[in-house]
Amino acid sequence: MENPLEFDSLLDLFDRIPDDKAATEYFALVRWDGEPECPHCESKQVYKRSGRTSYKCGSCRKEFTVKSKTVFADSKVGMRKWLIAVYLMISNKKGLSSCDLSRKVKITQKTAWYMIQRIQHAFDIGGFETPAYGVVELDETYVGGKEKNKHQAVIK
Question: By C-alpha distance, which of 92, 63, 72, 93 is closest to 23?
Answer without folding.
Answer: 72
